[in-house]
Amino acid sequence: MNSGVVFPRPNPKVLADDGDELRFCSTCAFSQACLAEGMDKSALMDLHVLVEHVGPLHAGDHVFREGDPFEAIAAVRAGTVKTCTVDPEGREQVLGFHLPGEVIGLNAIHGDRYPCNAVALDTVMLCRFSFPRIAMLATRLPNLQQQLFRLMSRDIGVASLFAGNHSADERMAAFLVSFSRRLAERGFSPRRFQLTMSRTDIANYLRQAPETVSRVLRRFEQSKLVSIKQRDVEILDMPRLEAMALAVLRH
Amino acid sequence: MNSGVVFPRPNPKVLADDGDELRFCSTCAFSQACLAEGMDKSALMDLHVLVEHVGPLHAGDHVFREGDPFEAIAAVRAGTVKTCTVDPEGREQVLGFHLPGEVIGLNAIHGDRYPCNAVALDTVMLCRFSFPRIAMLATRLPNLQQQLFRLMSRDIGVASLFAGNHSADERMAAFLVSFSRRLAERGFSPRRFQLTMSRTDIANYLRQAPETVSRVLRRFEQSKLVSIKQRDVEILDMPRLEAMALAVLRH
DNA sequence: CGCAGATTTGATGATTCTCAAGCATGGTGG
DNA sequence: CCACCATGCTTGAGAATCATCAAATCTGCG
User: Fold this and answer.
1) Could you tell me if A162 lies within 8 Å of chain B, comparing CB atoms?
2) How many Cβ atoms from other residues are within 10 Å of residue B193's Cβ?
3) Among A140, A251, B103, B114, whose Cα sits 20 to 30 Å from the Cα of A10?
């Protein structure tokens, strides 16, 4: 398995500036979001100039590593990226899972180094943005600046989502609901989806033992909240799941 | 006790544009930080124009409330501010404590409303910055923009500091060390300081029961790690405390 | 002085972790 | 094609950390 760092050296093949790139990149949710913020066509062109399409990365590939010098942020275009730290004793701490349309690396600006690892959980495609260049561009494009502010602001809130002291059931329900909603935002089905990460990763993220995750999911299944086959999830009773998650998500 | 929202209506008395304001505001750590980032004198003047000095606020006063429309960020100049949410059942969740030199409100950009309450824990002085105006200014002053990016980026990291699944002792040690370091950054003593928040607030922040906080602190005192009289803390063995906190803080 | 709120302390209990073993699953090579 | 292995997942039993409940103590303040 290739576990090298591929992020700082984007594959030249996927950077080809062929005629399809503009259309191709219009599927990049990050650009889309900027567009939605009122950026005009020429502004979008400026963005395209500094986008690098990276990938495909495969499960286990690192997007960046903790301690690497910070150079760029990236928008996930396809697949799932896990961010995590490793403490001095080698124990991993999962910080988050990042779905298509979400941006990673924003927590590296302060410190000039990535404070965590970013690892592909499946086949991942990225849009890479040199940060100095996008920041420079943002001084000319207020909408872009505003969008960057918004993205970072949201990450602050997301990071404290699971900060509370809730039960294992509540955290798991919140995890499933949150995952479902984020998928729905990008046009995926909110009822049927695949958990691309291992039980161990979920457990770590939710501050639980993997055994607890397994037991909670089984109980959810027994109470007809969800149906689970391997990593495939079908949500059967969204209202009740949302009710359980309410204490964590607050809406 | 006055528990009204004072933030959106700064006290006119402290906004007086007398000759001392420039010197006065030079004690505002936010401006200082921007200065340190290489802003020249005229840039600083631009900042001063849009600063509003707010305060003094007293213990229990709200700086802003969850749900209030987002208009401004604020730098703490003196005192301590607690940010917290309240869930549908009325249970509070403490998100953080903010010391002089730290900025609050950055998590409100996304959503256009404050996602949490901000409450003064003691006598608090603030610098208030209209966000639309400071964002506008940031397009002209790349150093200011960069500073805002940095502040938000740091908040992402801070929010996930206590995300890990650590023991009560480790979290408390990390809390004390982190508090001490942040005070030291601003020139306060890192060995002797006052915990301006209640045990209940600390407990909530660390996901513990107040009783657990009490017991952990007593054990710390018995092992000569710290000396505690009410809310006054003296750290007696910083190396050992830092060692305990290592798993949480990672440095 | 006495009251209200905060903190401490002790006893008990429950959620969750740990340890250990069994069971699927998916890929590999014979 | 099937046995085999590695990995991840599940399940059960026992243990431990930490929360809860109850009550005493302390503190600041009117």
Assistant:
1) yes
2) 20
3) A140
Chain A contact set for B108 (CB, 8 A): 153
Residues 195-234 of chain A in contact with strand D via CB under 7 angstroms: 198-200, 210-211, 213-215, 217-218, 228, 231
Q: Do B160 and A159 touch (CB under 8 A)?
A: yes
CA distance B94 to chain A (A): 8
Q: DSSP letters of B49-89? A: HHEEEEEEE-TT-EEE-TTPBP-EEEEEEES-EEEEEE-TT
Question: CA–C1' distance B218–C2 (Å)?
Answer: 29
Query: What structural domains and CATH numbers belong to chain A?
Result: 12-159 (2.60.120.10), 163-249 (1.10.10.10)
The confidence score (pLDDT) of residue B128 equals 95
Contacts with B, A 51-90, CB within 8 Å: 85, 87-89
| Whole-angstrom distance, CA of residue B13 vs CA of residue A219 | 60
Residue B103 has pLDDT above 70, yes or no: yes
Interacting residues of B65 by C-beta distance below 8 A, sequence separation 6+: B5, B114, B117
Q: Is A149 on the interface with B (CB under 8 A)?
A: yes
Over the stretch A183-192, which tens digit does the pLDDT of each residue have? 999 999 999 9
CA distances from B221 to A117, A170, B181, B218, B245 (A): 37, 35, 20, 5, 16
Residue A82 tokens read as 């896990």
Rounded distance between C-alpha atoms, residue A102 and residue A224, angstroms: 31
When pLDDT is cut at 50, 70 and 90, the band that residue A228 belongs to is very high
Distance in Å from the first CA to the final CA of chain B: 41
Interstrand relation of A103-104 and B62-64 (parallel, antiparallel or unpaired): unpaired
Looking at per-residue pLDDT, the higher value among B237 and A89 belongs to: B237
Whether B8 shows a pLDDT value over 50: the answer reads no
Residue B59 in this model has a pLDDT that exceeds 70:
yes
Instruction: Give me the pLDDT at residue A165, please.
Output: 94
Chain A residue with minimum CA distance to B165 = A207
CA distance A220 to A25: 40
How far is residue A70's CA from residue A114's CA, in Å, rounded to a whole number?
Answer: 6
Residue-wise pLDDT for A91-119, tens only, equals 999 999 999 999 999 999 999 999 999 99
Q: Which two tokens stand for residue B151?
A: 């502040």
Number of other CB atoms surrounding residue B246 within 10 Å: 17
More confident site: A23 or A65 = A65
